[in-house]
Amino acid sequence: MKRVVALLALAGALVACGTAPAAQPATQPATQSAGSEAPAAALPVTIKSADGTDVEVKDAGRIIPLNGEIAEIVFALGLKDKVVGVDLSAMGLPEAQGKPQVGYARTLAAEGVLALKPTVLVGTTDAGPPEVLAQIKNAGVPLVQVPTAADSVDSVPAKIETVAAAVGEPAKGKELAARVAAEIAAAKTKGAAVTTKPKVAFLYLRGQQKTYMIGGRGAKADAMITAAGGIDAGSEAGIQGYKPITAEAMVTGAPDIILVMDDGLESVGGIDGLLKLPGVAQTPAGRNKRVVSMDGLELLGMSLRTGPALDKLVAAFQAT
């Protein structure tokens, strides 16, 4: 059988900076819902956070984006100099180099965040733990949460607009969101034209921690695979979220392609190490060494690079 290695590695800088002029301050605060259309108004602004609360942002002079995907948006808005800290998932971004780290978005510590004296925090609903977020809010720091957009790539533009509104750049955000929406729409059109839809299994790999998971329904990879014209093998097998890899699950799922993140593949020793995981070598993807590897933030960020990421997936799915 023909052996195909589709190894797509992203190395290098990314991200475009918004060029639209900053909006002039409004005489009255505007209101913006997380996930709805952003108004053409600067600060102060009241945001309907994804946690259901109304958050008033008066000052975006010291910003901490709590996730890599949010940092990517903030940097693209031209606000690098206002970012006073980032989480570990943003450290692959060139603009994040040299910025203080606040740990990982899911395991934040209030003391480390508050020590940087932020005037606004913006993160997805993945950020936590909840008790730490409560401490930060109780300290008087505005915290705006936006949906992760895990269920659909179509929600990415609204996510961008909400982040932009929260940091006082709604006009730039609208422009950026329009560009990303066009890229996603074009990529989805290509995905819909994929004639032979491959079964694709997304594997979350962390070799050092011996963590080997397969993604399914509700995982971001599911939305990406589907939009690019593939069939998510995990979702088709009835997996919800993530479950440990088993030989039975891999053989039964019989993926044509295995999709992984670059650092995950590296952590298990490359393709040779991947083939040693339970059941992988016995799948069509394993026998043909048909593996697609991408930068994690590009693949799962649901942010600025979602359109180009879909283009790469479409190309990989069409390869023979």
Automatic annotation (TrEMBL):
User: Do you know which PROSITE patterns this protein is assigned to?
Assistant: FE_B12_PBP, PROKAR_LIPOPROTEIN
- Give the range the annotation lists for the signal sequence: 1-22
Enumerate the UniProt keywords alphabetically: Signal
Would I find Metal-binding among this entry's keywords?
A: no
Start and end of every Fe/B12 periplasmic-binding domain?
62-320
Q: Which domain of life does this protein belong to?
A: Bacteria
Q: Which family is this sequence assigned to?
A: Belongs to the bacterial solute-binding protein 8 family.
* Entry-linked PANTHER family: HEMIN-BINDING PERIPLASMIC PROTEIN HMUT, VITAMIN B12-BINDING PROTEIN
- UniProt-recorded name of the protein: Iron complex transport system substrate-binding protein
